[in-house]
Design brief:
Elements: H1 6-9, H2 28-41, H3 61-73, H4 80-85, H5 89-95, E1 111-113, H6 117-124, E2 134-141, H7 147-160, E3 166-170, E4 176-180, H8 183-188, E5 192-196, H9 202-219, E6 228-234, E7 240-247, H10 253-271, H11 285-294
Parallel strand pairs: 5-6
Antiparallel strand pairs: 1-4, 2-7, 3-4, 6-7
Helix pairs in contact: 2-3, 2-5, 7-10
Length: 295
């Protein structure tokens, strides 16, 4: 049973649509977008012309979402609607802006919003113990972590990302309803938790961390926010493990890198004694869900 090397069979460097004539980027924004595409698609930038189609080059809807976040870091602001409508560098460059569309974050009253298609699918399947369908990421840290900085960074995530404040109840017809909890309510509940296991032997550390992890995983309740916990375990010599535990209903594979990037940015800003300044949201959670429903 020999393994097949997929990379040898399929090389994205060779994918250039025959129909598209190569036109090099000229403006600053065009050049930035070409670099972003090249990074996402793993293609030589010199092979991406102004009229090449993102999806014909091997892109998909998940990668197109990453265009927004990567462009935003370089001062180029695009909306989800723009990336879905315009599939060439030429079109995107004409329709982007240098100033973000500021999304007002509702944090005073609970707001009911529709279920995304994948959320609706989840509830339709009536899974056993639906509150326990969680996913997690464990990150190794190799320097002493400032707990106050990390705690504030987690709070800033909740302030910016409405999806992290989602919880779910059932109406009189036993239909699931998605509610965005106000930010003030979420931060009243302990989200970030710190544990010092540095005095324990390695085997005992692993057992202790597994026990705590299972306790928090089993405590998640879809009807009570938050549906997310961040745990930090301090180990020996400044090392540690940072664990994100989150229900599937409030995140997806693409969202993880955005959340972690924002966390890292806020932590770094505090470490450098700079004001906290997260990039503006260019598409609200409600807008995103409506786009998915109408897709």
């Amino acid at each position: 049973n020999e393994k097949i090397d997929i990379k040898k069979l399929f090389n994205s460097q060779d994918i250039i649509p025959a129909k598209a004539e190569y036109i090099p980027p000229k403006t600053r924004i065009e050049k930035k977008l070409v670099k972003i595409w090249a990074n996402l698609l793993k293609i030589d930038p010199s092979k991406i012309g102004m009229n090449h189609n993102f999806f014909e080059l091997g892109g998909d809807s998940l990668l197109s979402m990453q265009i927004i976040s990567k462009a935003k870091k370089q001062g180029v602001f695009l909306s989800l609607k723009q990336t879905n409508t315009h599939s060439t560098i030429s079109e995107l460059a004409k329709n982007c802006t240098n100033t973000p569309e500021i999304i007002k974050i509702q944090n005073k009253d609970d707001s009911i919003i529709p279920l995304a298609p994948i959320q609706k699918w989840f509830f339709e399947h009536n899974f056993y113990k639906p509150s326990h369908w969680n996913q997690y990421i464990i990150l190794d840290t190799h320097e002493t972590i400032n707990i106050d900085y990390l705690n504030l960074a987690v709070q800033e995530l909740f302030k910016k990302h409405a999806s992290l404040r989602s919880y779910f109840k059932f109406n009189k017809l036993k239909q699931p309803i998605q509610i965005i909890a106000p930010y003030e309510l979420c931060i009243k509940q302990p989200i970030f938790h710190y544990f010092d296991v540095s005095t324990l032997p390695k085997s005992a550390q692993e057992k202790k961390m597994a026990l705590i992890f299972n306790q928090y995983q089993s405590s998640i309740d879809l009807s009570t926010p938050p549906l997310l916990y961040v745990l930090y375990f301090k180990q020996k010599k400044g090392k540690g493990k940072l664990l994100f535990l989150m229900h599937h209903l409030i995140t997806d594979v693409v969202s993880w890198h955005i959340i972690l990037d924002d966390l890292n940015l806020v932590y770094a800003q505090q470490k450098k004694k700079k004001p906290i300044n997260l990039p503006f949201s260019t598409t609200s959670f409600l807008t995103w869900i409506n786009l998915l429903i109408n897709y």
